[in-house]
Structure formats: structure tokens, C-alpha cells
Prior knowledge:
The chain is of the alpha+beta class. Helices cover about 45% and strands about 25% of the residues. It has 18 helices and 21 strands. The protein has a 6-stranded antiparallel sheet. It has a 5-stranded antiparallel sheet with strand order 8-7-11-10-9. Strands 13-12-16-15-14 form a 5-stranded antiparallel sheet. β18 and β19 (about 570-575) form a beta hairpin. The longest helix has about 60 residues, at about 400-460. It is elongated and about 185 Å long. The two termini are about 110 Å apart.
Amino acid sequence: MTNETTRSTGKSRKTPKARKTRGAPAPSSPMSDKPRASAEQYRSLFESIDEGFCLIEALYDEHGRLADFVFREVNPAFERQTGLSNVVGKMVGELLPTFEPYWSEIYARVAQTGESVRMENYVRDVDRWYEVYFARAGADGRLAAAVFNDITKRKRAETRLRESEERLQKALSAETVGVLFFRLDGRITGANAALLRMSGYDEDELLAITDWSILTPPEFSEVTERAAREVAERGKTTPYEKQWIRRDGSRWWGLFAPTRLSGQGSESECVEFIIDITGRKQTENALRESEERFRTLAEAAPQIVWMSDEEQVGYFNECWYAYTRRTPETSLGTQWSEAVHPDDRSEALRRLAHANGAGELCEIEYRLRRHDGAYRWHLARAICMAGTHRWIGIAVDVHEQRTAREELAAQVMAATSQLHTLSQRLLQAHEAERRHLARELHDEIGQALTVLQLELAKIRQDAEGEVASALTDAEATLRDLMTRVSELSMDLRPAILDTLGLAPALLWYVERYQARTGIGVDLRLQGLERRFFPAIEITAYRIVQEALTNIARHAQTQSASVHLLAEADLLTIMIRDEGQGFGPHTAADGGLGGMRERVSLVGGALEIETAPGHGTVITAEIPYATTARDEGEGNAWSPLAR
């Protein structure tokens, strides 16, 4: 607790050494030796004064140390000013548990030395401030008297005043708020540093100004006079905006808020708080000019231009009114989506919401209702303005282009379908021709070569010498020719594919491939116990054949893997090698392009993953609608049945 003032008001006197006491002495009064009349006057004064009074005795322990104090006498004002009652005969420590030690020191010093003390201090237990005068009572060094007055209200008022002054000083020292003190007769009486900086004047120059026209431009004289009248009549005015003239002649915008402090009429003492809003006014002017330019451009645009917030449209250009034949009264404040075709509305709103969340430009085509009820396609581009929920957009009539595009798309689709059909027929014709050539080679040429072999063998039996040797060589050449014809027939169209199906054909082909190339092939077949449509089987066979042929020619590897999996109406083919791979520009060349085309003709898709030095993975996915072979060709084959 703060001891604000301590002052000695008397001289120290010698006092007898304090005696050890075992208890409190009987109550006594320093006035007991006076005549009775004088005592009664003292008692009357004692009980009627407004100041509190108490007589306190110091108590010492058997070692002569101060132990506590006891109240010996108090006047009625004591109870009023402390809120404590029935204190006579009670210990201070009992009544005031948090009694500060310095109080004990002061009481003891006054009682022992006779030095008077005047002070202001705070007593925590009763939450009050007191102005106290201490004096010794008696010469034995144990009694001290205190006359005090409750100054709590004054101290709290001083605290509030001090805090108010501190707040005022903080306000006056604010760098962003100018403060001007003036009289309504036109005399300036003070200003803070912020206002001096805003105006460009120093304090002496500003205080010397008596003609406010030096500070106020002519066009703002009326608003200044009106504000002065309001302050004179009402004591304050609504904050208003105007310009001031700086010392260098330049202008700045301010927000002014004057208030009367004291006085009446022209003698009024006033204060005015001023905020520099030049930056805001410049921004407003720039925004206004920008909006004017936007509206000029929007009205000249041949497309519909609009602005809206999340709920309603705030602006349409003239093109909108010409297209819809509506008026601003029936257009503004409505939902812009009302004019969108019902089938396009939800998608348009969804796309706008997505673009808003992503901070992206929204571009979408939808149909807008015209004044005659017809709907025409428009290409809309809209973007949410930064930091707002306002949209700005344009809508370009693309009905003719959209119609032409749809017609062209239909024509392209028809042409693509025709090309697809033609490709299928061409591929079917190609496979039919290969099948025919394979059969011709096997049946006709193969049989003719067999007959020729028999004839040569018969002739060789009757021949001798060089003729027999020549016939033997001819037979060897004929056998080699028969082998080549058989292989050519199988390469053109393996008969095993048509008779037994995809799985046996692949097993046969891989066995021949490994023997011919020396490349090991890990062949895995799952779900291929069934038969597929001929187009599916020949496509899968050709994909594997072409991929393994490319590996032998280009991959420079000694191993490859071929996996086929048929499940859930999807045949998946994966051919992998760890060879040298190739770049993306090669993926559409030669046999790879033919593989893509074959797969697409049966409704499938083919992907190639490769990079130089990292091998190649070819994956084909071919859908099939049934597991049964069409046209009743062949029976289901299963390796488990062998």
C-alpha cells in the first residue's frame, strides 16, 4: 500500500524505556486529571467532530518486542469512517488481519519518540484511503493518538482524473487523429502534433490565424458555417467532410467532428477531432471513375454484361434489355438465373459456386430466354471480384455457332461410325483373306507339295548315280519348302485359334516363339477356359503376336511376360519386357498404331508405358458381352479337360 506523504510535525522527546507488560493496562484517559468541566467540554468535542479519533496502546512481549496494538478509546466518527464497531479493548491484528507492518512502525515510533506524523495512506482491510495525523499521548511510550479523515472519494476522483488526463494525452498524441482547440469567434487556441503535420503549419503559425478562409476553400465555407451554427445551438454536430488548405497551398480531405467544451455563443470553447481521409477520397474518386469507364464500355459492348452479388443482379447493360424487352424495374434486384433454361440452371449455379471457391474464371454455355419465349445458347464468362461476393460477367450469343457445332459433331459422329464400320469390315476382310490364304497354302499347295514329294521318292527308288543324288537334294529342298509353307499358313491364320480357341493358340504360339527367338516368355492365363467371340479372340491373339514380334525386333532383352485375365466381362492383356524401351514419338508408329486400332474396333482401350532404358508395358482392356462363341463355332476349351 502506498504511503503518499509522511511529515514530522513535532520534535522528538526523550521517553522512558518501555516496560515489559504481561497484559493490557486498565483503560485510562489523558484528560482524567483535568477539571470536570474541562473534561465534559473535551468529551462533547470528542464526540461531535467529523474526524475519526482513536487512542491506541502498544503491547510488548516479555522480550520487549512489539506484539500488537489495542484500541483504548474511539469517537463515534471512528465507526462512521472505518465501518468498524465495538473496537475498544480489541487487538488491531484481530480486527485488521492484513494490517500492513508500516502502520505498526509508525505507531511505535510516534509513541516512543513523540515525533508527530501526518500522512495519506490506504487500508486494505476496509478498502479506504485516510488522511491521518499521529501524535503521542502520554509519556510512557505506549500510547499514540490518531486523528484521521476518510478521503477515499477524493482519492478515487483524483485517480479518475489522472486516468482521464492520461487518456486525453494519449488521444492528443495519436498520430492519426488531429485535435484542434478553438473558439466560435474564430480564434484557434491549440492543436496537437498530428494536426500540425496534416496542415503543414507549426503551432505559432496556426495560432496566429484568425481568418478561417485561409484554411477552408471557398466551396466549403457554407458547410463550415453550418457546422459552427449547430455547435453554438446544440453543442455538437454530426461529423462532416470537407477540404482544408495546407500551408503550401495543397488541399487535403478531412473528417471533422466538433464539440463544445464550455461557454455559450461565440464565446464557446470547442474541440474538434479531425481524421485525414485524403487516401479514402482518392480511392473513392478512382473507383467512381473506374465504374464510369466500365459502364461506358459495357453499354458499348455488343454482348450482355451483368453484375450481381450472391442474391440479386445489380446491373445489366442495354443488350440485356434489348434481348429480353424487360425494364430495369423488372430486372434489377432479381435472381439472374431466372432467365436460364431450367435444364441448364443447376449446372450453371454449381459451376459458379465452384469457380468462386477456387478463385477461378467460370466459363459455361447455357440457354437464355428471349423476349418471345425462345431460348438461345449463350457463352457466359464470369469472375468474382477480389475481396467481394460480387460477380461480373458477359454472355455472348453463340446459338448459331452452337447449332452448327452440334450439326458438325453429328456429322463427325456419323462419319466416325461409318469409318469404324468400314475399318471393321476391312479388318474382317483382311482376316478372311488371311484365313483363305492359309487354307489354300495348307490344302492346295501343301497337298500338291506332298504329292510331289511322293513322286520324287518313287522316282528316286529307280534312279542311280548322280540322278539319285540330285533327287535326294530335291527332296530335302522340297521338305524345307513344305515346312515354310506350313509356317506361313499358321502365321497367316492359325487353324488352332478357330478350332480350339484363344488359350491353346497362345500356348502354341509362345512355344514356337521361344524356340525361334530364344526369348523366354512367362505366359499366364486366368479365366480363359471359356470361348469368346471370334473378333475378341483374333484381336487378343494379334495383340500378343504383334507385341512379342516387336520385343524380338527392338527390345534387346532375353525375357518377357504375357498375362491374360478374363473377369467381370473384361479381358485384360498385359505384355511386359525389361528391354531398352522407346520415346513417346514412337508409340503411334508401325505395329503399335495397328494395335490401337484393332483394340478400339472392338470397343477396348490400349495404353503403352515406356521410356528409353526402362522397358515397356502394353496394357489392353477389351470388353466382352458374353462368354459364349457366336455362330455356334467350336466348343468351350479348358486346359483342365486335357
